[in-house]
Description:
The structure holds two protein chains of two kinds.
Chain A: E1 2-9, H1 12-27, E2 31-37, H2 43-54, E3 60-64, H3 71-76, E4 82-85, H4 99-107, E5 116-120, E6 137-143, H5 150-153, H6 155-159, E7 163-167, H7 179-189, E8 194-197, H8 206-227
Parallel strand pairs in A: 2-5, 2-6, 3-4, 3-5, 6-7, 7-8
Chain B: H1 7-26, E1 32-39, H2 47-57, E2 67-71, E3 76-79, E4 85-86, E5 103-107, E6 111-118
Parallel strand pairs in B: 1-2
Antiparallel strand pairs in B: 1-6, 3-4, 3-5
Helix pairs in contact in B: 1-2
Amino acid sequence: MKKIEVVQNILEANDSIAAQNRELLEANGVFALNIMSAPGAGKTSLILRTAAELKDRLRIGVIEGDVASTLDSERVQNEVTAVVQVTTRDASESCALIANMVAHALKRLPLEQMDLLLIENVGNLICPSEFALGEHMRVVVSSLPEGDDKPTKYPIIFSDASVVVINKLDFLPYVDFDIPSFQKAVLGLNPRAKFFQVSCKTGAGIKDWCAWLERELSSHKSHQKIMK
Amino acid sequence: MASRVRMHEFGITESIINIVLDKAKEAEANRVTKISLVAGELSGFVPDCIQFYFEFLSKGSPAEGATLHFESPPAQIRCRDCSTVFHPQDTVWTCPSCQSESVEIEGGRELYVKSIEVE
Lengths: 228, 119
Ligand SMILES: Nc1nc2c(ncn2[C@@H]2O[C@H](COP(=O)(O)OP(=O)(O)OP(=O)(O)O)[C@@H](O)[C@H]2O)c(=O)[nH]1
Ligand SMILES: [Mg+2]
Ligand SMILES: [Zn+2]
């Protein structure tokens, strides 16, 4: 019997594929968002609203990680330049996108004709948080009917998010969701988190979110130029 | 939901087996008898699930039959205001010394293959 010290990170394989995805995106000047939420919080709706708002100015691609059906990709395909549905290994359903799935999806997207890539992760607040995909930013969508206790129940996903989009604002009169205390809980975990309050139903707040996103894109682009 | 939570352990278990078989090969071993894994309390990975996939995925490989040993380092949260390090009660991450909610994760997200035993 012989003991061998290994000490090797199990996520390394995923992380290195994510780094390659990131390089490929950079090389094509594409800015990517990894959009995560509980099931039904409004990821697809946010993608639709964002695409409708920005499609005259930005060329947008979408990766739909809703592996159970093609419904979401059908919903978005008219709004964007290109959409790819991620199919996982024939094995079974997935609870999260992993970098390898995105690597395959990127091969099927016209990256050189895109500015923005929106990746809809699988509806789940635990599993996706461990897997980098190569995104520039992680966006968590939290909707009012879910309740305001999600940051304390699922701290990891909130501590790694760049942006938290509070959706279904039209529900405010009907639910007990304390927006300031929700934001305080997120900021406790993640002092740099940025918030937007939107309703994908009424369109409220969408302009602010999109204007900010556009600014992030152009500042990233000019930064890239300086680096080159 | 239960059926959906499987797959990420599936991929993780594949990665574990790849790492282990590489190391065993380097050591010119015939068989892996034990695998020690570290999966922190906050890592989001369920040992039973990894065990289940391991039995399935290691069949026919030098790792078949190896025992998996799990270590789960506890969540360690550090208060940004007073630097107290604490283990969170339930899911509410409030500093027990100063009640601050401004905290960061110091430990508990580890996920790695620590060592293997081969023959
Ligand atoms: N009232 C209201 N309903 C909304 C809003 N945004 C989304 N919805 C509805 O919520 C439901 C779920 O929205 P989706 O956009 O499909 O959510 P999702 O996160 O993509 O869901 P999954 O992909 O299944 O996890 C749909 O019926 C939407 O019409 C909103 O701002 N207000
Ligand atoms: Mg969806
Ligand atoms: Zn404190």
